[in-house]
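# nightly structure sweep
# worker-07 picked up a monomer target from the shared queue
# config: single-sequence mode, recycle default, output format = structure tokens
# input follows
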Amino acid sequence: MIITSPEGRQQSDVRRDQMLAAAAELIAERGFERTRIADVAKRIETSPALVMYYFATKDELLTAALRFSEASFYSAAEELLDKPWSLDKRLSKLVDMTFDSKTKEEFAGAWGLWFELWCQAFRHPQVAQDRRELDQQWRDLITRVVQAGIDEGELGKTDVEQFSVEWAALLDGLSVQVALDDPRVDVKRAKQIAMDFARRALATT
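# output follows
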């Protein structure tokens, strides 16, 4: 029986995070197809075998890298739910987090990971399942924000699930346009469209 000490687990977690950060950077820079396990290993000065020890396939590494890159977003979102704010302000802050939390290059890079995931999900069933779970995490967050507004008496009977599907799809689509530097959809316009839709759909003020 092998027993791993807390110090050993901590070092292991740090090493794994380094791999995920490197993978996220490389995939955003080069694309999934042009990123090799060996490239990830080289960036953090370790062996490809060690990377493969943590991640059996490159598809698994892609999904894990995306989850890693999104972790800070969801952590901030949890704090948002703890604030004594109105529903409208919470939704507005969620929109700000979606569009303002990164520089232009970082924003495009983060969405580049999603682009690569969607491409791989189209061809590989396991990646498709991972994609469904990640999208559901996003919809679940929106659901919780709106449900908090209902619980606090700001909204009456509302189809929260329908709204979460619609708004998540809208925010995703707007983010793609911003990431691709569409001349008609800049950050300011994307945020306005998102909030206009939410206020109409939920009748918030």
